[in-house]
Amino acid sequence: MTPRDIVNILKGEVAVLEDKYSTQTEIEEGYLADGLRELIENLKKKPEVGFPLQGEIFNTVTRGARKGTLYLRSGATGVGKSRSMVGDACSMVFPIRYEPKYGKWISTGTPEKILYVITEQNKNEIQTMMLAYLTGINEDVFKYGTFTDEHIERINKAIEIAEQYRDYFMYTHIADPCASVITNLFRRYNFQKNVEYFFYDYVFSSPAMLTEYRDLKLREDVVLRMFTTNLKNLAIELNAFVMTATQLSNIDDEKNKGGFKDTTNIRGSRAIVDLCDFACIMSRPSIEELKIISGFQKRYNFEPNLVTDIFKNRGGRWTMIRIWSLMDLGTCKRYDLFVTTPNNEPIEEFQIVEFNFEKTPEMLELEKRYNSNIDFSEEDNTDKLISMINLETGEVVEKKIDAIKEAFGNDEQTKERLKNVSLGDML
To answer: In the chain, what's the furthest Cα-to-Cα distance?
Structure first.
């Protein structure tokens, strides 16, 4: 052996001892070929998707609220960041809500525990948003107190639902947050109350945050990056889902001429995006953009009032796309309409992945209980009766299927009518 060979052997032995006794960071090593068959079998049984959020297209792109990830959804003031977040939180917590489109209470899945961290708003603001979501009644009715008897009956049911699932929707108000406080908070709720979904309403440089890193003499953008790093580390450590938001800069939302928006529009620190698994920007469509997609509005009588530009999607196929939606700020609900490229061209190959679930006896019992006073036998109640086709089974379904065929034709006629219609035609 040469002297170099001897030194290399000694260095190797020291490295093994150092790795065993002095390295504090957890390191995983192995061969990528190991466990592939088990991986495929596991994915068959449990696909890598999370709990559904609002919007079918948004869910298809993100694969839901996946644990161990950090999502960032930014937007200008007044676009609806907080209301979208409250709507997403409510969709996770409550297994039933009133849907005005169907005129009845519908079950939406199983409940999940969440923690909603408020920094700028107060408890009452979140409460009225929650009731607006559950009842389908515009929040203005709550704020002005213009309740009708029908409103009161529906509101009382919503309050009963909120009380029944009281332990699932937790909140904390922190006016002056910092990394150490948030770390302690998330760990405590995860360890003691089994919370695995966290909503942190707004990332900003608070006095406490700047004071926490004062001795290091760091710039504000670096402080924000470190705080976001802490959120991402908590998502991994607790195997939890974390969603947050930021404000925008370099944009006047009322006068902008539209166009795809990306990380250059993030206020405070563009490095925040580096730590996120998913990042997007919400904005209002400009007048010019609405002219481009006017064909959709003419055909379906829907005009999108929200466009979401997705510019980062780690582990996902779809990025650098735009989701056009109808956002009901009054009830915190978002309905996705269609998706395009950054240049507002249709994406023909995009297909929505449905997050289906089987209704448990408990869900069916909830629907029966809260719809007990709704009469579905009225002749002028067509929309409510049709909605039962998607939600229930039985003789009523068969009866209404015939009525629909009389109005719109059978499956073959429908296919013939739509065979030459593409998404491009709709736009």
So the answer is: 97
pLDDT of res. 117 = 94
Domain that holds residue 419: 375-426
Residue 185 one-letter amino acid: L
pLDDT band at 138 (very low <50, low <70, confident <90, very high): very high
- Stretch 385-407: mean pLDDT, rounded? 36
In the chain, the percentage of residues whose pLDDT exceeds 90 is 39
What is the rounded CA–CA span in Å between residue 343 and residue 346?
A: 9
Q: Are residues 336 and 379 in the same domain?
A: no
One domain, residues 252 and 381:
no
Minimal CA–CA distance to 332: which of 56, 77, 89? 89
The one-letter code for the residue type at 3 is: P
Task: Check residue 61 and give its pLDDT.
Answer: 93
Question: pLDDT at position 426, please?
Answer: 47
- Looking at the whole model, is its pTM more than 0.85? no
Q: What is the pLDDT of residue 295?
A: 78
Computed over every residue of the chain, the mean pLDDT equals: 81
Contact call for residues 244 and 72 (beta carbons, < 8 A): yes
Same-domain pairing of 225 and 321? yes
Q: pLDDT (tens digit, 9 = 90+) per residue, 327-383?
A: 999 999 999 998 999 998 888 888 888 776 667 788 888 888 898 876 544 434 333
Give the chain's domain count: 2
**Who has greater pLDDT, 298 or 3?**
3
Residue 379 and residue 332 in one domain: no
Give the torsion sign (CA, 87, 91, 92, 96).
positive
